[in-house]
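Dear colleagues,

As part of the handover before I leave the project, I'm documenting each prediction I ran so the next person doesn't have to rerun anything. This entry is a single chain, and its sequence is reproduced below.
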Amino acid sequence: MASLARLLRREPALQPLAVAVGGGVIAALAVSTHYLRKSPDVSINKKGRPEPWNDVQQGQNTKFMSYQPDFWASRKDHPDPRAMFRVPVDANSAQASEAKQQAAAKAKLDTMAGFATEGQHDSVQGRVNFDGQRAVEH
């Protein structure tokens, strides 16, 4: 370290280079530390946060830098899609199956309402053949 300081005093043209490289190393360490501690993609502490990806809210941006912040703001009011997979304590009850059906129906209605406002259509269209059978086209 002393020889590096001596070299920088002797050659002042290398000082900006040393500052730039040192700043880059510090920035890389800071970003890596932030990503390891805060990202839902990485799980170092498996006992404290066994599934960090389940902590992400519907409108939360998990990217380091977002080019479309309006996209995340528009998702804030959407229902949580994981709600249909959560079951009550008694998973075999009729109440659990009814809750799943209601959540699936609500998700479909919300999706179709979004399609209607954007002028899109469902990708599955049904038609009836001449023999009365329903055919599905994708």
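The radius of gyration is 27 Å. The mean pLDDT is 77.

All the best with the project,
I.
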